[in-house]
## 1
Amino acid sequence: MAAGVSSPSPVAVALKDSAAAAVVAALLAVPLLGFRLMDRSQGPELALRLSWIPIAAASVFVGRFALTLGGGALSRGLARRPPTVTLVDRPNRGRRLAGWAMAGFALALPFLPFSDRNLIDKATLVLIYVMLGWGLNVVVGLAGLLDLGYVAFYAVGAYSYALLSLHFGLTFWICLPLAGLLAGTVGMILGFPVLRLRGDYLAIVTLGFGEIVRIILLNWQSLTGGPNGIVDIHRPSFFGLPFTANPPEGHPSFATFFGLAYTPDHRIIFQYYLIFALALATNLFTLRIRKLPIGRAWEALREDETACRSLGLNPTTIKLSAFAIGAMFGGLAGSFFATRQGFISPESFNFLESAMILAIVVLGGMGSQVGIVLAAVILVGLPEWFRDLQLYRMLAFGGAMVLIMLWRPRGLLSSREPTIRLATAPRPALPAPEPAA
Amino acid sequence: MTDQLAPLLTVEHLTMRFGGLLAVDDVSFTARKGDITAIIGPNGAGKTTVFNCLTGFYKARVGRLALNRGEDEMFLLERMEGFRIAREAGVARTFQNIRLFAGMSVLENLIVAQHDPLMRASAFTVAGLLGLGRYRRAEHAAIDFARQWLDRVGLLAQADAAAGGLPYGSQRRLEIARAMCTRPVLLCLDEPAAGLNPRESQELNQLLLEVRRDTGVSILLIEHDMSVVMGISDHIVVLDHGRLIADGPPAAVRADERVIRAYLGAEEDEALPVEVAGDRGVN
């Protein structure tokens, strides 16, 4: 009678667990998949689609079974994630080379044999997101302030340019710094109420702020045109030379001035180089400011705000400067967006855009400039090229994000280079005096 | 040690209440310039609360915290924001649970501590962006200063490594070096010997004495490790249940009836439940 209680085999446990999951899936599938609304001549009608229910249950069963048995490997893979951002020991030559190679490729892109109008257009779009990613990286990657409403600054920049050029006839080159300034100011205004917030709370408030800006744009009909947006936004000129087919008498266009045959490609290529220059400026500015006290203070703030305060750093100014500078780049990108599209409406500035930019920063590896380029190409570029896959585009997008987060939970390139190295710092000429108390 | 008449720090009637809990109750003491002053007491005596009031992490509603830097430079710390206490009054601190910038390099930690002079040298980033010589010189000076401190705490070889990856004892020393890089007049150390082995504690003693000798900084420290407290303190303040129970040189404090009672448990405490009495033992 002393039958020992043997522990059930892992396969039996997995089978039982999977069966339970399959039952739940079948129950859920009845309302979710079991009915289909049919459009009949006599009106809509519910059709039963019972065959889908066992399919759903079976796939859940198989998936759950595989996960339970193979889950060990998965969780071991997850456990390998590094605890903090790793600091690279030696100057990362490879990454710097990759950066230069990318910049060189981007510079040559319009003149490569395989490039056409379509490709340059898509590359322009990718570069907008690269610039937005680099801008948001200041706030999220360096200062560690989770901002879910970044698109608000993008919108402020776009509308600043559109309205200033529409009402005051200012040119793109005057509006560009103004748009940056305005967006930076708005960034600072947003910064004030959220100074005391961190992490999730900050994310929620910035999310709300992004929506507020969009809703203001929608409803302030007299200024922004509401949902109709603003049309016929001025296109940028090449140092005063417009890109038009038939310039008025006495006003040369880009094509006539350089004696070229007019083609709309000129404008496309010019826009491409414009955003390339803007993005590059963003990058150089960020790389430089990282090595200045303010940039180090941002990173210190990300690491430990309390310690910052104990060292005499004022968290208020540090946070506000990060918000303002991040917002400024968003605004610059926004005014480029407006001039490229020639039309803007609140539609373009919804939460999904913010989420996309944040995804680029996070997947790229917080704080990594090259990683952001890779992430922008993957998240913005690839879906554009695979538009034919239509339905499965978003599925693949979601899948790619999940996979990246599983394999590289800290982003594609997560290591960080110190802003200063003792090994390469100049030696003192004279023994420095003892510190005074 | 010097200047008996003018204490660097004067704490008067400091009282701090958290809801119904009186964490610090009418505490007054002074710390003289150039002295190492230790605040000791059983767990929950209010030592860290005093520290947090001093360094601006708590706002004291009752009492006065005066820092006298001489030459009519007087700071009332209870009225200042935390970061100003560090920047203007020159009070630097370390933390009981080390707070380094873990993802940044050891050297970067020390450069961040020199934020204020560097920020001014970079003309609030403008001169720095333009790469002007003034900022470059200031940065070199900051690196040299950091180098001296790295040398002193024995971390020169790890200067470019991540601060979070250092062994525990090194992190403690780095935190002290980082605090000293703000060029303070008063260095507040919250349990600097916690988690150190006896040999490391001795090295810490040595380090603190050297730092004081070479820079003239005054030190205020909270410590449980009696070998540190008795070994280097000039002056000891004993707190228990938020109240000051003894105040004087080590020898006098060691012999004080009330201190012994607070640490070893008194007759009246024996009526308390065992775990409460146990909690109050020497750490």
Note: The longest helix of chain B spans residues 133-152.
## 2
Amino acid sequence: MKFLRSTLGYMIAGMVVMTVWDGFVGPYGIVGGFFAAFIIIGPMWFMNHYVGLIDNPDEFAFVDMAVGIGITGIFRDIFMKGMGEFVASVPTLLLVILGAVIGGLVAAAIEKDMEKKHQPADDEPGPGYNNKK
Amino acid sequence: MTIGQAIATVFGGFLFPFMIRMAWGKMVEEWGPIGGWMCAAFIVGTVWAINHGLQNPMITQSGGVWIDMAVAAGVGVYVASVARGGKVKGSLINLGAALVGGVLGGLLLSFFL
């Protein structure tokens, strides 16, 4: 059941993004794309991650619905245009993944650094504090 | 694809998961579900504009198969989550579901597009 739930979540998000988004960008350009982000990602995120159609317990690594969206886009074009076109797209795929890995590691490192700052300051006076008075 | 475009593509992939990881959780914490909708517009929408929306976008597509910045979000958020102690083994079921869902979704789309 968990697998089915998650599969449905990734599949619906991927299918809607990979059709409706282009539909808005066609006639309305960049404004259409921005609007598409709001009306597609908003409800999809709400259903998949806020309500929890995709079951992702806190202790497990987080598999965002974006994984489903990305894979849907790739396979839509593989089924429609063939493997040859996919081979031509591999450079972009690898570069994007490289950037994403760096981005994830840097973000995690920065989060750790931010948490350090939030530790409460030491409110006990240090040794020798009372002697100075 | 030129060297310059390749470097820009790497940074486009960097930008999206980085912003999600930095701001999304905090916005939901502060504003509840409305925060998620704000992120959908102002992280996804705005970063989409630079990565895909511009006439010369930051992510250069080298072939005919669309590499969406969602790939970057998925990989980057996953890597960050693992780096912060998320267990890989338990996430495999969702990774499998994403693969099955993605292939099925792509197949369904190819029937009518």
Note: Helices of chain A lie at 2-51, 65-81, 83-117.
